[in-house]
Amino acid sequence: MSLLPSIVRDRLDRLRSVLDPARAAEQLKPRQDRLPDALRLERHPTAKSIQRIWERLTKANPAAHASRELLASEADIAVAERYAKNIENFAGIIKVPFGIAGPLRINGLNAHGDYFIPLATTEAALVASYARGALAATRSGGISAALLTEGVLRSPAFVFENLLDAGAFIDWIGGNEAALKSAAERTTRFGKLISLEPYIDGEIVFLLCRYTTGDASGQNMVTIATDALCRHVVEACPVKPRNWYVEGNFSGDKKATFLGLLTGRGRKVTASVLLSRATIEKYLRTTPAAMLDYARVADLGARLNGQVGAQGHYANGLAAFYIATGQDAACVSESSIGSTRMEDRGGDLFMSVTMPNILVGSVGGGTGLPSQKAALSLLGLFGTRNAAAIAEVVASLCLCGEISIMAALSAGQFTSAHDKLARGAK
User: Exactly one of 112, 123, 247, 313 is catalytic; which is it?
Assistant: First the structure.
């Protein structure tokens, strides 16, 4: 009896039938013959730099000429300089379609109104799903939303000779907070260092630096500020580290972590709505009881698979919104953790989401690029004093997605919706 799972045995059998071991070994060897010339890094896009890149692409693959007509039009080249601070080796603009979910009524402390939400995606059924959730929520009077806390983390690491030095370093930190705060905040007009939290592991100290970042998402802001803080530490602290790193991989930057779930990294928002039985039956074509039955199964599945939090598909709405509005799309990996709750309320259905890691801004990063600025302007949330409102919109949007997917799966609509919208089935 084999101890290997059947899926492993089947894969091995298929490989043996098609793979010549000697040929495979040859194919997997490193090759030093005819190495390609490195592509020159173009930091500032111009018509000439774009031409150089496409000449190289076309030389490598003549079919690239046809792609250029779609990806690097004369209109794209004319605005290339606008992208200088957002991308290197600019070669053109890839167009992603966007749709509108809404109007979604949000009764938030910062976002208060009826919002048409832009979602950029190539996934059929996504916009339809969020639009359906928005319709049900709006017909129920809207979603209540509140920004609870904010603070972007950076976690420099310091390596000392021994545990005693690490402890002495933490003691020194405690007596020099004002100087460290000053060193960090000299690098930014808007960032504020609000806490320093040491974590010791033997001779290594992680220093969790938490910042508010104004209306920016703040990833670059906190990195530059933390680097200045670390350099002040190395210069002023009598206990010198053997090595230090501006990020010790402890902050949870672009990762789903339990630290983020518990303490937050970015903006923490909770959003909720009470859906009446009549609204659920009319707009979602299911019942509160059916949705709660499915929710119990889904919650068990989340616990069994070790999910960080428990939710249906925050990432779908986050990715579409982040791309449309110029947020850092990679932050979906950490923003998409949190908890969805569903409770019976006298025959009606209460639903809420709590999301501790929403990393968004209304200024900086990609928010000022032409299309992304226009998308934020559709929301009425471009520019200063709008980041908190955007965070509440994001959480409310994700709640709409949870409403729709839980309804679809509880009523057996999930597959048919994708078959109809993605494949055109009737």
Answer: 123
